Amino acid sequence: MIKVGVVGYGTIGKRIADAVRLQKDMELVGVTAHSYNYRMEIAQKKRLKIFAADGIEELKQNGIKPEGDINDLLGQVDVIVDCTPKKLGKENKEKYYLPKKVKAIFQGGEKHKTADVSFVAQCNYDEALNKDYIRVVSCNTTGLCRTLFPISKKYGIESVHATMIRRAADPWDIHHGPINAVVPVLELPSHHGPDAQTVLHDVNIFTTAMSVPTTLMHMHSLIVDLKKEATAEEILDLFRKTTRIRVVRNAERVRSTAEIMEFAKDIGRLRGDMPEICVWEEGIGVSDNKLFYLQAIHQESNVVPENIDAIRAATGFSDGQKSIEMTNEALDVDHF
Ligand code: NAD
After folding, report:
1. What is the pLDDT of residue 55?
2. Which pLDDT score, from 0 to 100, does residue 54 have?
3. pLDDT on residue 199
4. pLDDT tens for each residue of 264-314
5. Residue 197: DSSP 8-state
6. Is 303 exposed, middle or buried (0-12, 13-18, 19+ CB in 10 A)?
7. What is each CA distance from 53 to 9, 33, 173, 289, in whole angstroms?
């Protein structure tokens, strides 16, 4: 059993903790608490072991019984999954993981150079094998890599132009916006293109981005110049056969991110999650060698399977395809 600890029990961390518990080859040793909140009450009700990253007195005053502090957690794990807010992963690496010689998986809020490799399982699992520090790229970058990789492999890519239409905040988040504006990212390219190249090293990609008043999902509009000719039907077939991509259909009245989220709830997904990248069948088009498509990204969940595969890669499980299948099976990905 691979012993796993989760540092940072928020949007991503709580999902990864649940996902680890569903793997037959992993054991969740515990999660950290940074301050007292309802998530800690839930963790305690789920009988997770809680280790105080901070605020131990506040936790105790509120009836949370920590097993120890973050150092106690580090002493019991093979791998830590760091799910703290951006930049804290780097600090934690220097303060805890490096001195204690503990392997760690970081999230997309960290810089590429904080880890040995940036990671999307179906693109570069082998590159991450036995690495001490692996960074699962952001939700947007994961979405770009998952669909561009099979296209690049089969048809070759001259160049990609993609626009990220980003959700303003996660659904629970009362602090961020916009709530009544479209905010362009005035940085060209937006950071997503260079970030995708940390995984897809040879893909020539240029991205632009904006934030819009929604919390449900991100949307991407992609234009891909192909090296070899393809039809829209062939691309659709390729997406249908590729893991962690779901083709959705306007014809079935899945016309929006709202309907995708409702679909995820209706098929019984925990928290209504949709870790697959959703590509609209009717949105795929080809003109000369230019391919157009639209995809929706559930930012809260699409990186969760990647983190599970990153744990296996870090601990030397050498068969990436098998890891993806095991993760998919345990998390019900691709099944419906
Ligand atoms: P979050 O704010 O929801 O959760 C962060 C958690 O870390 C909170 O529970 C907080 O209490 C805890 N925390 C804060 N400081 C801590 C510390 N010093 N030690 C231990 N715990 C601490 O954040 P999130 O959205 O889960 O993001 C985590 C990482 O995942 C970031 O790198 C982010 O960029 C990345 N990510 C987020 C999303 C998303 O849409 N939310 C998607 C993909 C990747």
Report:
1. 84
2. 86
3. 98
4. 999 999 999 999 999 999 999 999 999 999 999 999 999 999 999 999 999
5. H
6. buried
7. 11, 6, 22, 53
Residue in 224, 300, 295 with CA at minimum distance from that of residue 254: 295
Give the distance (Å) from ligand 1 centre to CA of residue 175.
14
For the record, the structure tokens of 12 come out as: 């991503």
CA torsion 306-163-259-232 (nearest 10°) is -90
> Rounded to the nearest whole angstrom, what is the distance from the C-alpha of residue 305 to the centroid of ligand 1?
17
DSSP letters, 204-262, are -EEEEEEEES-SS-EEEEEEEEESS---HHHHHHHHHHSTTEEEE-GGGT--SHHHHHH
Tell how far the Cα of 238 is from the centroid of ligand 1, in angstroms.
34
Query: What is the Cα–Cα distance from 300 to 302, expressed in whole angstroms?
Result: 6
Residue 139 annotated as catalytic: yes
Query: Using CA atoms, how far apart are residues 130 and 205, in angstroms rounded to an integer?
Result: 29
Of 6, 38, 69, 84, the residue with max ligand 1 atoms within 8 A of its CB, to mutate for a pocket test, comes to 84
83, 123, 139, 145: which is the annotated catalytic residue?
139
Which residues in the chain show pLDDT less than 70? none
How is the beta sheet containing 2-7 ordered, strand by strand?
68-69, 50-52, 26-33, 2-7, 79-82, 103-106, 133-136, 117-119
Q: How many CA atoms lie within 13 A of 255 on its CB side?
A: 2
Residue 3's nearest CA partner among 22, 25, 33 is 25
The tally of CA atoms less than 13 A away on the side-chain side of residue 196 is 28
Tokens of 9: 């029990």
> Which atom of ligand 1 is the closest one to the Cα of 39?
9
Q: Tokens 């829209």 belong to which residue? A: 232
Minimum CA distance residue for ligand 1 atom 27: 85
Give residue ranges with CB within 6 A of ligand 1.
Answer: 7-13, 32, 34-35, 53, 83-86, 88, 107-110, 138-139, 170, 299-300, 303
